[in-house]
Amino acid sequence: MRQIVFDTETTGLNPDQGHRIIELAAIELSDRKTTTRRFHRYLNPEREIDAGAAEVHGLTLERLLDEPKFAEIAPAFIEFISGAELIIHNAPFDVGFLNAELARAGLPPLNTFCPPPLDTLKLAKELHPGKKNNLNALCARYLIDNSQRTLHGALLDTELLAEVYLAMTRGQESLLGDDHSAQVDEATPYSEDAPRPAVRVVQANAEELALHAKLLTSIAKTSGGKCLWQQLELGG
User: Fold this and answer.
1) Cα-flanking dihedrals φ and ψ of residue 199, to 5°?
2) 9, 28, 203, 229: most buried by Cβ count inside 10 Å?
3) Catalytic residues
4) Residue 193 Cα distances to 3, 53, 61, 189, 198, angstroms
C-alpha cells in the first residue's frame, strides 16, 4: 500500500468554528524511502487568521489572498492521496479539518478515498509513555536535525515527520544493510578443504548505537532495572 506523510497549517484550532486550512503538504513514501512525488499548496482561507495561529506558522491573510481556494485544488489533491495510507501526527486534528474542507466543497469525507490514517502521535505515546511526543521532542529523541524549524510549516514538517516515522518503525533489517537479501541458498556439502567464506560484519553507526542505548535505558526503567542486555553491556 502506498504511504503518504501529511500535514496542514490552519487559521485556528477548531474547524467547527469555521477555521480553515491555509497550507497542506503530502509526500510519498516507497520502500521506506521518500520519493520525489509530493503535493504542496498554500490556500486562501477566505477569513482572518487567529493571532495565536499566525505566531506558530507565520502566515498572514495578506500573504494568502492570491492563493487558490481549497475547492480549486481538491481534485488534484484527492487524486494524489487516493488509496494511500496517510501518516499524520495527531491525525484527528488534520482529518477533522480535511473533512470540513471536503464537505464545504461538496465532496465526501476522507475515508471515501483512503483507509484509516496512521497516527504517529498515538504510536509515539505507545513507544514512549509519559514523555513529550511532539515533533520537536521526537526529532531530538531520534537525532533528527530540525534546526530549520523556527516556525511550523506543512512541507518541512512532513519531511521531518517522514524521518521520525521511519526511525520509530525501523526494523532489524536496517542493521543488515539495504542490500541484504532474506533469500536462503540451498545448502552445499561441507568440506574441510573448501575455503571458508568471508564473514560479513556490519558495524552499527553512531546514530544506531545512540538509539540502542536509549532503548535499553527505556527497557530498564520500565522493567525496574531488569534489562539483561544492558546489565551485560555494563559488565553487571
Assistant:
1) -85, 125
2) 9
3) 152
4) 50, 73, 78, 11, 15
Tell me if 101 sits within 8 A of 21, measured CB to CB: yes
DSSP 184: -
Name which of 4, 1, 52 is nearest 158 in CA terms: 4
Q: Provide CB contacts within 8 A for 202, sequence distance 6+.
A: 175, 176, 177
Which amino acid does the sequence have at 221? K
Give 53's pLDDT tier (boundaries 50, 70, 90): very high
**SS3 assignment for 84-143:** CEEEECCHHHHHHHHHHHHHHCCCCCHHHCCCCCEEHHHHHHHHCCCCCCCHHHHHHHCC
Q: What is the pTM of this model?
A: 0.71
pLDDT at 166 over 70: yes
Widest CA span in the chain: 81
Q: Cell digits for 114?
A: 483512503
| Set of cell numbers at residue 6 | 501529511
What pLDDT, on the 0 to 100 scale, is given for residue 174?
43
Q: How far is CA 11 from its chain centroid? A: 23
27-31, 175-179, 192-196: which has the minimum mean pLDDT? 175-179
Alpha helices in the chain (DSSP H): 51-57, 61-64, 70-81, 91-104, 120-127, 135-141, 154-168, 206-222, 228-233
Q: 3-state DSSP call for residue 21?
A: strand
